[in-house]
Structure formats: structure tokens, C-alpha cells
């Protein structure tokens, strides 16, 4: 028989102590050493009863308008005069937009945003640069080095959110840059700077100010060791644009990708060259990934990869040497090692290329990393060229995905890749056979379609 709970018992249960995480606000009925949401240790504290809160309706200060009466021209794109950045953003900066730029330490985030700040300030607009990681003198040294000094560019070295918002009230900038959002903290909430609660409060306050003033805001975000943006996932939902700045530490090339963009596409990629004098956009970066040799060399093949919607030429190099051990070495650089191992097995099993006694070294030129499956055919042809010591034609490109059965599968953007290769002076291409064909081919450009890897090897060797 079911028992009824008395009102006194229910009242006693409601007055039971409650525990709350000081970092993210997660609550639980009993104490635990580790937060169940943010996984922080030692942040769960007793807070007592948490009463349910409701918000009553208030008087409307700004009445709602019909969507047809809203002036959309107030949110038009304003170019930054950095073509590669404008390409990724969809046309430029939008008034009131909040953009989050994340990337590894030292990749060039601060250098790029300082250049943007100077270019916007030279258009006669006030720009506020809030730095929480460096002093104003350190930022000034970088600005002198990259020629980013402008009269209407203001610097503020603050880590307090209230002080930063006070500077916004005083200057009323058209562009606000915060470097970085994890260094600001608010005295109104608990937790240390960079914690979940603080990042949520800082982001909400800055976004509210940006929307109310029509002020474009650029936020620098830290990343974790696995490459994801540090802080709560809510941060990426709140902002309008999320950009990822990528680049190898030993390479000058930097790639800017839009992960989220409410104002434009997310398949565009911006290319930048990071030098001692600053960071510059690269309208044609293909020359960085192709070696310059007078005579053809065996073991090399040029391919065309798509970064977003942008075709880029890259060179794959392979070297084979007789192994002195029972287990040949398989070394790669700039390519997926497991995919290269698969292509070695396909070459040996499906194309009768004996590789089981050779050490193989496969790499890309210029430090570029190729992850697209369309580079499989070029990697396989470079390995076969190194094995036979037979150079491929000088003006040849190859692309296509290779399957375990030795078939060459179609890839997207075949015509776009061919047009890019023709623009850079190439005259021949080996491409996968596609049911829809390759599309219009430039005059004087030879295209050979292959359906298997063995057919491609027979065509060349």
C-alpha cells in the first residue's frame, strides 16, 4: 500500500541543503568532489535551498516593429580592406556583429586583429583595443613593427569587465577588440578569470553592449590542447561568427576558416603569410606548395586540393629506399599516415608494385597539410614514380580518391580544379572518370579519365 508524504516532510525536504558549482552553476542534492558539468575539482559548495525564480512582465520600452519596416541597410558589410578576411566573413564587418577568433598560441591572432584595428581607424572611425594579456607598451611595440599606428586607435590594458565597459561608454567606438575574452573577469559573479561562469558573464555583457550600440566586436578566444575553443559551448552559440585561425609553427602559411557565420558562407578559406613585418593576405598561395626545379624528378606529383571552395596546388614527394630491417619504415609529413599506409597496400595488391622491402618517405612541400581524399591518386603516382625511378611529365596534375579495390572515385569540383591548374600553366591532368563528365575543358588542356589505379599507372609508365 502506497504511503503519503506529509506536508511537514515535504517542507523538510525542500529545506534540505543544496550544493552548487562556483564555476558553472551546476547544482546537486549532495556534495561531490568533482562538478558533473564542467568537471572541475573542489568547486562544489553548499548554498542552501535554491528557490524557483520567475520573471514578471514589465513595461515595453521599445515596441516591436513589423519586419517589413526594419531598415536592413544599417547592417551592411563594411570592408576591412584585407581581402582574405573579407572573403571569409562574407564581405566585411557588420555593425553590431560579434566575431570570435580562436587559434593556437603564437599563430598570429593578435597581429591580424591589430592590423584590422589600424585599417578601420584610418577610415576615420574610433577603435578600442582592450588587451588583458599584454601591457599597452607591448602592443605599441607590435604596432610599430607592423605599421599599425593610427590616431583614432585607442589601447586599454584592462582585465576588469566593468573598466572595459566604462571605456566603451567613454570612447563609443565603432569597433571593439578584446584580446582575450578569457582574461576579463567581472566582480559581480564568482569564479576566476577564464572560468565557465566568468566567460559566460563577460561574453553576455559584451554582446549586449555590441547589439545596443551597433558596435562590431572582435573577441580572441583561447583553445584547449585538443584544438577546441576553451570555455563553455554556449560562447559559440552566442556570437554571430566563429573563425578558426590555423597554421603550423614552422610554416609561414596561416589559414582562416569560418566555422559559423550568420552573415555569409562557411566554406571560404582565407590564406595569410606571417612574416616579421606583419601578416599579409595571399591571393595566390599555390606557389608556396610547389617546388621549383628545372628538370622533372622522380617521386614527385602535383595535385589540386580544395580548401573550402578554393582550389590550391600542392606537391607530393615520395622517396623509397631498400630497408635494412625486417619491418620497413613508413614515414609521412603533411599527410595522414594511415591513409598513406593504405595506398601502399593498394599499390602492392592491386597494381603489382612491390613495396614490402622498401622504406617509404612521403611528404608535402611547404609544410601544407593535405587531408582531402582527392590527393590519393597523386600520392600513389608519386610512390610509383619513386619505385620505377621514372619522372612524371612536368606539366601534369593528378587528383582522385583511391579505394581499397584499386578504383579511382570521383571527387567534387573537378572542373574548378582543372581551371586552376590551367591558370597556373599546367597542360595535362589525370582525373577520375565521372558520370557527368569533367565539364568544359580549356583549349589546349589534355584531360585523361581513369577508373582504376592500374589504368593510371599503365597510362604513365
From TrEMBL:
Pfam families: AAA_25, ChlI, Zn_ribbon_LapB. One of its GO terms (cellular component) is cytosol. ATP binds at residues 103-110. CDD domains: RadA_SMS_N. Residues 74-223 form the RecA family profile domain. A motif (RadA KNRFG motif) lies at residues 260-264. SMART domains: AAA. GO terms for molecular function: ATP binding; ATP-dependent DNA damage sensor activity; damaged DNA binding; hydrolase activity; zinc ion binding. InterPro entries: AAA+_ATPase, DNA_repair_RadA, P-loop_NTPase, RecA_ATP-bd, Ribosomal_Su5_D2-typ_SF, Ribsml_uS5_D2-typ_fold_subgr, Rubredoxin_2. Keywords: ATP-binding, DNA damage, DNA repair, DNA-binding, Hydrolase, Metal-binding, Nucleotide-binding, Stress response, Zinc, Zinc-finger. The keyword Plastid does not apply. PROSITE patterns: RECA_2. Residues 359-461 are annotated as: Lon-protease-like. One of its GO terms (biological process) is recombinational repair. It comes from the Bacteria. The keyword rRNA-binding does not apply. Plays a role in repairing double-strand DNA breaks, probably involving stabilizing or processing branched DNA or blocked replication forks. HAMAP family: RadA_bact. The middle region has homology to RecA with ATPase motifs including the RadA KNRFG motif, while the C-terminus is homologous to Lon protease. Belongs to the RecA family. RadA subfamily. This is DNA repair protein RadA. It comes from Arthrobacter echini. The lineage of its organism: Bacteria, Bacillati, Actinomycetota, Actinomycetes, Micrococcales. The gene is radA.
Amino acid at each position: 500500500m502506497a504511503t503519503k508524504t506529509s506536508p511537514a516532510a515535504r517542507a523538510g525536504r525542500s529545506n534540505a541543503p543544496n550544493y552548487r558549482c562556483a564555476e558553472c552553476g551546476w547544482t546537486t542534492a549532495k556534495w561531490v568532489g568533482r562538478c558533473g558539468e564542467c568537471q572541475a575539482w573542489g568547486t562544489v559548495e553548499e548554498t542552501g535551498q535554491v528557490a524557483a525564480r520567475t520573471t514578471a512582465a514589465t513595461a515595453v520600452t521599445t515596441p516591436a516593429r513589423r519586419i517589413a519596416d526594419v531598415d536592413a541597410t544599417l547592417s551592411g558589410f563594411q570592408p576591412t580592406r584585407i581581402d582574405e578576411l573579407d572573403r571569409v566573413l562574407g564581405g566585411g564587418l557588420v555593425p553590431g556583429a560579434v566575431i570570435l577568433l580562436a587559434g593556437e598560441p603564437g599563430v598570429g591572432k593578435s597581429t591580424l586583429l591589430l592590423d584590422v584595428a589600424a585599417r578601420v581607424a584610418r577610415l576615420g572611425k574610433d577603435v578600442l583595443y582592450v588587451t588583458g594579456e599584454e601591457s599597452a607598451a607591448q602592443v605599441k611595440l607590435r604596432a610599430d613593427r607592423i605599421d599599425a599606428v593610427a590616431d583614432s586607435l585607442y589601447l586599454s590594458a584592462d582585465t576588469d569587465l566593468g573598466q572595459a565597459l566604462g571605456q566603451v561608454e567613454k570612447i563609443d567606438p565603432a569597433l571593439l577588440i578584446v584580446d582575450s575574452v578569457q582574461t576579463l573577469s567581472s566582480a559581480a559573479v564568482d569564479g576566476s578569470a577564464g572560468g565557465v561562469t566568468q566567460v559566460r558573464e563577460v561574453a553576455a555583457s559584451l554582446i549586449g553592449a555590441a547589439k545596443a550600440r551597433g558596435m562590431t566586436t572582435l573577441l580572441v578566444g583561447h583553445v584547449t590542447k585538443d584544438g577546441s575553443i576553451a570555455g563553455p559551448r554556449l560562447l559559440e552559440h552566442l556570437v554571430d561568427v566563429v573563425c578558426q585561425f590555423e597554421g603550423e609553427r614552422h610554416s609561414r602559411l596561416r589559414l582562416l576558416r569560418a566555422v559559423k557565420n550568420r552573415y555569409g558562407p562557411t566554406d571560404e578559406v582565407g590564406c595569410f603569410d606571417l612574416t616579421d613585418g606583419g601578416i599579409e593576405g595571399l591571393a595566390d598561395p599555390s606557389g608556396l606548395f610547389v617546388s621549383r626545379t628545372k628538370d622533372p624528378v622522380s617521386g614527385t606529383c602535383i595535385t589540386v586540393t580544395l580548401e573550402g571552395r578554393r582550389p590550391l596546388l600542392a606537391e607530393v614527394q615520395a622517396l623509397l629506399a631498400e630497408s635494412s630491417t625486417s619491418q620497413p619504415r613508413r614515414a609521412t609529413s603533411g599527410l595522414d599516415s594511415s591513409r598513406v599506409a593504405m595506398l601502399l597496400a593498394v599499390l602492392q595488391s592491386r597494381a603489382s608494385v612491390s613495396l614490402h622491402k622498401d622504406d617509404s618517405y612521403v611528404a608535402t612541400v611547404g609544410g601544407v597539410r593535405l587531408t582531402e581524399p582527392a590527393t590519393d591518386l597523386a600520392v600513389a603516382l608519386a610512390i610509383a614514380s619513386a619505385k620505377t625511378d621514372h619522372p612524371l611529365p612536368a606539366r601534369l596534375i593528378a587528383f582522385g580518391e583511391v579505394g581499397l579495390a584499386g578504383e579511382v572515385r570521383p571527387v567534387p569540383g573537378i572542373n574548378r580544379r582543372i581551371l586552376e591548374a590551367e591558370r597556373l600553366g599546367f597542360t595535362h591532368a589525370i582525373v577520375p572518370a565521372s558520370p557527368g563528365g569533367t565539364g568544359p575543358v580549356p583549349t589546349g588542356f589534355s584531360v585523361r579519365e581513369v577508373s582504376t589505379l592500374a589504368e593510371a599507372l599503365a597510362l604513365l609508365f
